């Protein structure tokens, strides 16, 4: 899922740096997810664990040494060429600069993925735009199918649709 709003005012584009997350980033990732008000918020523990165990398959963007955004993902154990993107978030101070798209491009290139997958609910237009434009920039297919339907959840969560993009290579 992604959370990045359209730019409503003109501001200079800031230079972002991209790197693997470290344990020191866990709190910032949790705060960005919480502040997004659209991402499913996991425990702060899970973001620390993610920064330790899935740093190779995730990316943090910094601007002026401040965490500006992140993409968390993992390589599917049963499909080693597939990057599954878990969450995408951009700090509200840095939205409107295509940072989410750049982070996704950066991560897919670093991992040399054959496919990128994510799940998106029907009400998340920003995520749909992000992943659709990712596929369009590469001129590759994007398949969309229900993966986890509402009836599977004990809490009435909306259906998560699997977006599968590729092959990229």
TrEMBL record:
Residues of the N-acetyltransferase domain: 16-160
Sorted UniProt keywords: Acyltransferase, Transferase
Pfam family, one: Acetyltransf_1
Main EC class the enzyme belongs to: transferase
Gene Ontology process terms (BP): ectoine biosynthetic process
Record flagged with keyword Acyltransferase: yes
Record pathway: Amine and polyamine biosynthesis; ectoine biosynthesis; L-ectoine from L-aspartate 4-semialdehyde: step 2/3
CDD domains: NAT_SF
Enzyme nomenclature, EC number: 2.3.1.178
Source species, domain of life: Bacteria
Stored SUPFAM superfamilies: Acyl-CoA N-acyltransferases (Nat) (SSF55729)
GO MF terms held by the record: diaminobutyrate acetyltransferase activity
Similarity-based family: Belongs to the acetyltransferase family. EctA subfamily.
Annotated protein name in UniProt: L-2,4-diaminobutyric acid acetyltransferase
Organism of origin: Crystallibacter crystallopoietes
Gene name of the record: ectA
């Amino acid at each position: 899922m992604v959370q990045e709003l359209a730019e409503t005012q003109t501001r200079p584009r800031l230079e972002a740096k991209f790197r693997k997350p470290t344990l020191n980033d866990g709190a910032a990732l949790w705060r960005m997810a919480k502040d997004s008000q659209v991402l499913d918020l996991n425990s702060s523990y899970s973001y620390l664990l993610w920064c330790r165990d899935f740093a190779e398959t995730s990316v943090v963007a910094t601007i002026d040494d401040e965490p500006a955004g992140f993409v968390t993902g993992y390589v599917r154990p049963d499909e080693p060429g597939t990057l599954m993107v878990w969450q995408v978030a951009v700090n509200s101070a840095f939205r409107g600069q295509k940072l989410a798209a750049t982070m996704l491009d950066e991560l897919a290139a670093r991992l040399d993925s054959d496919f990128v997958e994510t799940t998106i609910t029907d009400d998340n237009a920003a995520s749909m735009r992000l992943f659709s434009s990712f596929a369009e920039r590469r001129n590759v297919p994007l398949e969309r199918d229900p993966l986890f339907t509402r009836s599977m959840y004990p809490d009435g969560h909306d259906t998560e649709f699997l977006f599968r993009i590729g092959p990229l290579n």
